[in-house]
Amino acid sequence: MSIYFILNNTVGLVFFLFYAYQLYFILVSIMRKPEPFPDATPGRYAILICAHNEKSVIGHLLDSINAQDYPKDHLCVYVLADNCTDNTADIAREKGAVVIERFDDKKIGKGYVLNYMIDYITGNGAVWDYDGYFIIDADNLLDKRFVAEMNKAVAAGNKIVTCYRNSKNYSDNWLSSGYALWFLRESKYLNNARQILGLNSQCSGTGFVIHRDILSKYGGWQYFTLTEDVEFTFAMIAEGEHIAYCPDAVLYDEQPNAFAVSWKQRTRWVKGYFQAYYRCGAKLLKRMFKHRDFSCYDMLASTFAGAILSLSVFMLYFFLLVYYAVMGLPLLDVLPWFLHYFGSCYGGLIIIGAITTRTEWDMIYCDPVKKNAYVFTFPLFLFTLLPIAIWAPFSRQRWPQVQHVCSIDIDRITKEAPGGAKANESGDA
Q1: What CA–CA distances, in Å, run from 121 to 26, 76, 230, 362?
Q2: For residue 108, what are the CA distances in angstroms to 90, 113, 397?
Q3: Less packed terminus of the chain by CB within 10 Å, N or C?
Q4: How far apart (Å, rounded) are the C-alpha atoms in residues 115 and 412?
Q5: Under 8 Å CB-to-CB from 140, ≥6 apart: which residues?
Q6: 378 contacts 353 by C-beta, under 8 angstroms
Q7: Angle, helix 335-359 to helix 306-326, in steps of 10 degrees
């Protein structure tokens, strides 16, 4: 039996053992639906928005908040204009938000901004005025039922709730669609299944609400890594808190469509995963074994183990090629097995992308031809994570500024061109 046959099948078996449960998640999500949250009395919420030079998008976000199908006197919007050199603060004030301006070139990052904002609210004695706090990014848009649906989940007893994360620029190119398809998959086939099975969901960057009891219990916002959302998720699950998912609360997010921007952002993500694992990994492992909490394994597998396994396999094949080159052995003996492995990965990711695209077809606002084409570029988006994973541990990555330019309102996404490309054109509206 060939050593390459054994190697490839061993690698395949390891990946299967680590991730077979996610195949079960797909079946669960297709065959079952989460229990709907019952109607609830409106609670009072603060919506926290971190903004750095966001003049192109902040107005449309605030318009979508002002258009919420929810009592206006039960919402208070806080915009922290962080180190802004444009008129983000002025636009936010004109739209009715409470604006806080911060200038600090040392403590840079969303975690520090959230901490500053919550300390500001606490210092003004308003912390108990709100049942919960929404964490929203400046480039987001909210479906008009977003707050109402999330409120149902909170009223049902959930202290932390995340949402369905959609995209407002899916059709830009293979990068933006790759991001968007990944988050759609996370919503539909990870968080949705977790909700059905009573497991913990993951808070991914934006679109989640935290009950005031959580902030009070853990001393406000104390998460400052490059991926503060992952650190927060890890910390809450390690402490035994539950994170719920609300599939009917839809948020639209802007995705990078330039590779240089994507490289910087995903370098931050990978480095941030290492930071979050360093801070919370031991606690997650302890809870996993002590309390037999599968959510701990799920979080580590979905955010950390996959990158490490993929990187390890890539390096294994790379050093095998180097060995053959040094020993003067024919490289063509290795190449077919190398291509077979990556071909198998490519095919598997196409299947995942195709399933997600098919089931979420009506939620993807993009030309139908592009929808189908982007299924085949989805693996390329994920493969580019390999060099990023190699580079990230050695980088001196700080928080990169992502320029948001997709300046469109919620109606253009959901009404004017449903399912078409026109609704996702970037540029000033």
Answers
A1: 41, 11, 24, 39
A2: 22, 8, 12
A3: N
A4: 34
A5: 61, 206, 207, 251, 252, 253, 254
A6: yes
A7: 160
DSSP secondary structure of 358-382: HHTGGG--S-HHHHHHHHHHHHHHH
**Phi-psi category of residue 380: left, alpha or beta, with phi > 0 → left and psi -120 to 50 → alpha:** alpha
User: If we measure between CA atoms, which residue out of 295, 324, 292 comes closest to residue 234?
Assistant: 295
Looking at the chain, the number of H-run helices and the number of E-run strands are 16, 8
Cα–Cα distance measured from residue 334 to residue 356, given in angstroms and rounded to the nearest whole number: 34
Three-state SS string over 284-341 comes to HHHHHHHCCCHHHHHHHHHHHHHHHHHHHHHHHHHHHHHHHHHCCCCHHHCHHHHHHH
Comparing C-alpha atoms, which of 68, 127, 129, 128 is closest to residue 96?
Answer: 68
Amino acid present at 22: Q
One-letter amino acid at 161 equals V
Name the nearest CA neighbour of 170 among 351, 414, 370, 359.
Answer: 370
User: Structure tokens of 62?
Assistant: 């605030």
State how far the alpha carbon of 408 is from the alpha carbons of 50, 262, 322, 360, 395, in Å: 19, 21, 50, 22, 34
Fold topology of 1-429: Spore Coat Polysaccharide Biosynthesis Protein SpsA; Chain A (3.90.550)
Phi, psi (deg, nearest 5) at residue 136: -130, 140
How big, in percent rounded to 5, are the helix, strand and coil portions of the chain?
60, 10, 30
- What residues does each domain of the chain span? 1-429
pTM of the model: 0.90
